[in-house]
TrEMBL record:
Species of origin: Streptomyces asoensis
InterPro entries: Alanyl-tRNA_Editing_Enzymes, Thr/Ala-tRNA-synth_IIc_edit, Transl_B-barrel_sf
One of the record's GO molecular function terms: aminoacyl-tRNA deacylase activity
Designated name of the protein: Metal-dependent hydrolase
Keywords, ordered alphabetically: Hydrolase, Metal-binding, Zinc
Length: 240
């Protein structure tokens, strides 16, 4: 699907990936060019690229037929397209019309992991745990909680398996209920992602439309080390 977006705000960048996880192409224009570590970069007005951040990997993307890596430029705050290591961007000028696109399969894989991470956080909070860390990278996905001293189940293997079973049951129930996933922006500009009424958290990542889009959500037995509960997980995007 290609969206052609006209009449944008001059000099502003619109992060369209925040509005539609499943939008994979936009026709836009270059609003800034520059250099980063000696290599050229370009920023487009309507940015379909999610940069690495918030525990989520960057999208795989292209400007026209040139593969790019999206990163957030510290000085300007723009999400800019840079060339992969060993590559280079073609000459681009401000105002030039370009087509930006992403690998939708990679995007939805990342969105499924990120959404599943919110779900794991939600069911952990139902146990009275407080999240202290997260990672949504493929093969590394995990949520870490502070272990409450009052939860004596966590002191032995049988108790940890019991706690994990409770998490698995709560996750399975939320996925079966196909709870909607949506984002709202607060008056202070923060974007808050909701799993219906189950959970809400500030987040700048991409997410599935509803929890029924999650498949193969697997939670190995949780681990406890140095006062922290580590809940590893995997998830994929369901084909519909």
């Amino acid at each position: 699907m290609v969206h052609s977006i006209e009449a944008p705000r001059v000099g502003a960048q619109v992060s369209v990936y925040l509005d539609d996880t499943y939008l994979d192409q936009v026709d836009s224009r270059v609003i800034a060019v520059g250099e980063r570590d000696g290599a050229r970069w370009a920023a487009v007005e309507h940015c379909v690229f999610h940069p690495q951040g918030g525990g989520q990997p960057a999208d795989r993307g292209w400007l026209e037929d040139t593969e790019i890596v999206p990163v957030r430029d510290r000085e300007s705050g723009l999400i800019v397209a840079t060339a992969p290591e060993g590559g280079s961007l073609p000459p681009l000028g401000e105002g030039q019309r370009v087509r930006a696109r992403i690998d939708l399969r990679t995007r939805t894989a990342h969105a499924a992991l990120h959404t599943a991470g919110h779900l794991v956080e939600a069911v952990g909070r139902m146990q009275g745990w407080e999240m202290v860390g997260s990672n949504h990278f493929p093969g590394q996905a995990r949520i870490e909680f502070q272990a409450p001293q009052s939860d004596t189940r966590l002191t032995d293997p049988e108790g940890r398996e019991e706690a994990t079973a409770a998490l698995r049951a709560a996750v399975a129930a939320a996925v079966a209920d196909d709870l909607p996933v949506f984002a709202r922006c607060l008056a202070d500009g923060r974007r808050v992602v909701h799993l219906d009424a189950l959970h809400a958290a500030p987040c700048g990542g991409t997410h599935v439309r509803s929890l029924g889009d999650l498949a193969e959500v697997v939670l190995p037995t949780l681990k406890v080390r140095k006062g922290r509960i580590r809940v590893s997980y995997t998830a994929t995007h369901r084909s519909r």
